[in-house]
């Protein structure tokens, strides 16, 4: 994973303006996805599983400090996307800097752990932050994570589904450990984002006289 500093994050953009730039088959659109939720719900594993499906997950993973980013190029709804996933720290000490990650997010994955009631009860507060700091038209998907730990389940599928319905969001249960539901959750979120024409596409080839962004970041 590539670590970048919060200071490098682009400035706020609250515009809900529709793009009039026509998409050519060679254009690629940069998409920022923020993954939020309580500490230890599995945001880093989930992000890594999505971005690098064939790589092993680190069983000794440490709590995220600030954030990590991972990326993956894919085609959704006929659009070529460069998906940059902002895997944020769930720990309370980093909560104050989390809003900076929302500002340019096109989509947010709100994650709780189906074996951890507190992480489910914290969803409204994460949701409130998304609504407060993200763009008006940000797409949101809710994920009940660690589906493989069925015997330790504390939050039923119905509870998660009901909450998501109340928020008018798609809902998935998933497990980074088994991969179940991971691709479905991200694809549903990216589909919503792709249908949203807020962000203009970027040309794939960048003229040599334009300064390049730091490596590891989005090509936007
Ligand atoms: N059984 C199971 N364990 C998981 C899964 N995903 C993550 N874990 C474990 O849960 C613990 C926390 O995972 P992380 O991905 O670091 O959690 P996080 O939400 O990123 O935590 P912070 O970075 O502190 O916010 C680790 O010990 C993982 O091994 C999963 O799908 N199933
Ligand atoms: Mg983490």
From TrEMBL:
Residues 1-23, 198-220 are annotated as: Disordered. CDD domains: Rab (cd00154). Keywords: GTP-binding, Nucleotide-binding. One of its GO terms (molecular function) is GTP binding. It comes from the Eukaryota. PANTHER family: RAS-RELATED PROTEIN RAB (PTHR47977). This is Uncharacterized protein. It comes from Phlebiopsis gigantea (strain 11061_1 CR5-6).
């Amino acid at each position: 994973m590539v670590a970048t500093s919060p200071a490098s994050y682009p400035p706020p953009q609250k515009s809900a303006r529709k793009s009039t730039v026509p998409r050519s088959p060679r254009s690629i659109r940069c998409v920022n996805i923020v993954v939020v939720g309580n500490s230890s719900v599995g945001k880093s594993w989930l992000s890594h599983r999505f971005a690098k499906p064939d790589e092993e997950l680190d069983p000794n993973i440490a709590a995220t400090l600030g954030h990590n980013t991972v990326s993956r190029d894919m085609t959704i709804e006929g659009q070529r996307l460069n998906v940059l996933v902002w895997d944020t720290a769930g720990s309370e000490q980093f909560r104050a800097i989390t809003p900076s990650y929302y500002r340019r997010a096109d989509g947010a994955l709100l994650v709780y752990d189906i074996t951890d009631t507190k992480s489910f009860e914290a969803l409204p507060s994460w949701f409130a932050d998304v609504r407060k700091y993200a763009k008006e038209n940000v797409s949101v998907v809710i994920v009940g994570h660690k589906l493989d730990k069925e015997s330790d389940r504390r939050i039923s599928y119905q509870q998660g589904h009901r909450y998501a319905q109340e928020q008018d969001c798609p809902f998935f249960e998933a497990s980074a450990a088994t991969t179940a539901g991971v691709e479905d959750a991200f694809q549903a979120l990216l589909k919503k984002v792709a249908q949203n024409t807020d962000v203009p596409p970027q040309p794939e080839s960048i003229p040599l006289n334009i300064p390049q962004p730091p490596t590891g970041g989005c090509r936007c």
